[in-house]
Structures are given as C-alpha cells and as structure tokens.
Design goal:
The structure is a homodimer.
Chain A lengths: L7 H6 L2 H14 L8 E2 L1 H8 L3 H13 L3 E4 L3 E4 L4 H25 L2 H20 L2 H18 L3 H22 L2 H19 L3 H21 L9
Antiparallel strand pairs in A: 1-3, 2-3
Helix pairs in contact in A: 2-4, 3-4, 5-7, 5-8, 5-9, 5-10, 6-7, 6-9, 7-8, 7-9, 9-10
Chain A binds a DNA duplex through helix 4.
DNA sequence: ATCTGCATAATTGTATACAATTATGCAATA
DNA sequence: TATTGCATAATTGTATACAATTATGCAGAT
C-alpha cells in the first residue's frame, strides 16, 4: 500500500518528460511565450536536448492543465491567462480554501498543528526582518500544511492545481512589508481558529484571507505579471 | 481567434490517443479495473489495436486527472474512488455550482436563458412519462448551460472535471421517479432565481440542489457503483 | 494585381527499434 | 527450508522512421 504514496514530485524528477513538463509550465506561467504562440515539438525538443516523444507526452499534460490547447494535426497553442481568469481563480480559491480550513479543523493531526504553529512563529520573525524569500516559502508551506490537514485528496488536488497559477504573483505581492505582515497575521488567526476547533470561523477567515490577497494584488497592479 | 475555440471533444474525436483516453477513462470510472490494478501499455494497446505511443500519451492525461498513478519505470496503477472521495466531490461541487449559479445570474444571455426554460419545460414532460434516458440527458444539459452561462472558463473547467466523476452515478440516481421529478423542480427554482436576477437565491438553491442529489444517492446506496 | 491549383516543405500522428530499469525464476549455499 | 546471487524475461523510457495531414510558395490563368 505504501508504495502508492509516492509523490508526483518524485515521480517526475528524473524523467525527461517530467523535466520538459515542468520547464514548459514554468515558461508559460512566467510569460516567456506569448498568448496563442505555437509550440513546435522539434523546437522544444532541440532546446532541451530530447526527442519529440517526451515533448509530446508533456504536451498532453499541459493541455489537461489548461495551459495549452492542442488542435489535431495543427499544433499546440499557449492559452493565455487574462485578468478576469486571475480574478475568477481567486474567487474560486477563496471558497475552496474556506472549505479546506473547515475540514482541516476537523482532521488536523497533532504533528500538523505543531508545524503550523511553528510556521506562523517563524514567519513573524522573517516578516519583521524583511526576509521576503523565506516569508514566501513559509506562506506556501502554510497553505500546503492546511491542504494536507484537510484530509481530502480530492480537495488537496484541486487547490494544488490552482496554486501553481498564483505562485508567482503571490511571491511578488508578499514582497511588500505591509502585506507580508498582514498575511501572516491572517495565518495566525486561521491557525488559532483551527486549534480551537472553531470550524465556522476558520472557514470565514480563510475565505477572507484569499479575498484580501486578491484585493492587495489588484491594488498594487501586480497581476500585470500575467499579462506581459 | 475563432480557431482557438475548437472544443476538446472535437479535438480528440479522431485521434487514436483520444480514443484510448476516453476508453480507459470510461473503463476506470465504470469499475472495469480494480483499484490499484496495473495497466500494461502493450496489453491496452493490443486490446485497442494501437501501438504503445498513443497509449502512453493517454496515460499522462489520466494521471493528471487523478484516475491513475504512474510510478517511473514501474507501471501505471488505477487510483480508486472511495466513498469518502465521492462525498468530498459532492461537497466541493455544491460550493462551486452555487458560485456558478451566482455568476450565471449576472452573465446569462437571452439565448441561454431561453434554452434553460425550454430544458426545464421539456424535462417536466419526460419526468411525468418516466423517460429516464431523456431526463438524464436534459439534466446534464441543464448543468452545462449553467456552466457556459457563468462566463468563466476557469470555473467551467473545474466543474466539467468533476462532472465526469458523477455522470454515471447521477444517471442511476435519476432512474427513480421521485428524485427525477424533484431534481427538475429544483432546476426550475434555480432557473427562476437566475431569470429574476436573484443571485443570492440562485447560489443557495444550487448549493442545496447538489447536497440533495448526494443525500438521495447515499439514501439509496447507489454510490456503491463506484466501489465494485 | 489577385486568385487558383499544385508541387513541395513543414509538422503532427503513429509505429517500431533500442536502451534502461525492474521483475522473475532458479540454482547454489547455509 | 530459507536466502542470496545472478541470468533472463518483462516492462517502461526514449529515439527514430515513416505515414498522414497541413502549410507554403510559385506558376499560370483571369
């Protein structure tokens, strides 16, 4: 049974297809390719020093993630993310993170609870010092802990799917003293609600946490990173 | 621009990979394969009369949909859906369908509104007559109309992903006079709320609609279709 | 000048060959 | 009997060859 628990990250680390997949996903999300730009199998393959086979397999995954669209016998085209898409994603995430917080309240283990408290404590330190790299890292980890604690592989899968879309933007938005501290304060309140077993409150706070993150992003015009 | 609007359904219809993908997805969802059963590339290929290449590409998509797990250099294993997964899916869907109804209220076009009214009207007829096939078809279509009307490709994508998981179960649960009529009455109320521009009510009703569908399913023990 | 038709090139779709890794079976040993 | 080691088979990972489809460019017609 345990052998089925191998994580996707591990799964792809050493395969050419996995490398191609990650590279292309990063490049698309970072805006290296224009919207609707065509991706040629041979060109990508030569760039990464691999044949078309792993490239094509990576394409199928990217299509399912909604990052490219494949038209049969024609080509693979980058599907851009509009401002509206980002807004929609944050609204959907707001709901799902709320549900996640509620379920986490009901299922969190002692170990996860301790890591969460430690996370908030450490983040407070780095926020004060202005260590934005570490703060972004801890922010990501906080959410991952919650995803794991909710004890639902379906919800975890959904949220992690979204997560990739907002990773880059979030790192930028946290590079800002006010939001950095504010975000961690919100984490702390969520953590306390979970610890106290107050699922209703945890859900509400997690909802607001995502809404606030989006509002902050819009205020600073930082979603333009998606637009190029 | 228009050429990018080609639907996924069309995209895969004529490729071997698309056929393999659909076949395997159906077989997994219908329970043809046991949980944790290993899928061999050559065996699948021979069964469908194709080589390993399209089979492998289909595997990558199935993995991303969460239906199989691929362990490098070992094999592809079916990831089963537990009762808890089904429950989680319905809870998540309840939230997202609610959001969808809210957005649909704000963005539905006249044409979509008319198709929705026609759908409810027709479904009433088939529910009375006990035409379960047509009723299931109309039920699916009702939700698809709402997905399109919400005007969010991100949310639509999410909901359609879930939809496949519940399609078979839903068809069974509707094969039941009481639920069939009740479901359509709920559709009618949602439709009216959308028509009246009452987004709050539409969201609430859509939430409840999915919850009721789940409750009905549990009551009838029909999710066992997933368990095999 | 613009358009049509066709030859050619470019690109994707699939099959197959080969390499790398993992699973299996059996003999030798304790 | 149980266990180790190794040869062999089975399976996956990747590259390449070929087929099918689509794009491109140019000659000729209007």
């Amino acid at each position: 049974m345990a052998k089925f628990d191998v994580k996707q990250e591990v799964t792809d680390k050493f395969s050419l297809r996995g490398r191609v997949f990650k590279k292309l996903r990063d490049d698309i999300l970072s805006g290296k390719y224009e919207e609707h730009e065509e991706l040629k199998e041979v060109a990508i393959g030569e760039e990464l020093g691999v044949s078309r086979t792993p490239v094509r397999e990576a394409f199928r995954q990217l299509e399912l993630e909604g990052l490219i669209q494949i038209i049969p016998n024609k080509g693979a085209y980058v599907t851009g993310i509009t401002e509206k898409d980002v807004r929609d994603i944050y609204m959907i995430r707001s709901l799902l993170e709320g549900l996640c917080a509620r379920w986490a309240t009901e299922h969190i283990t002692k170990e996860q609870m301790e890591e969460m408290e430690e996370n908030v404590y450490l983040a407070k330190f780095h926020a004060d010092k202005g260590h934005w790299e570490q703060l972004a890292e801890l922010d990501n980890r906080f959410h991952d802990i919650m995803y794991e604690a909710c004890n639902s592989k379906m919800l975890e899968h959904q949220l992690k799917d979204f997560h990739q879309y907002v990773l880059r933007v979030r790192k930028k938005t946290l590079n800002n003293a006010k939001r950095g501290s504010k975000s961690n304060e919100e984490h702390e309140k969520i953590m306390e609600a979970i610890r106290d077993g107050n699922a209703e409150l945890a859900e509400k706070l997690a909802n607001e946490h995502i809404s606030n993150a989006y509002a902050n992003m819009v205020q600073n015009g930082l979603y333009e990173a998606y637009q190029k």
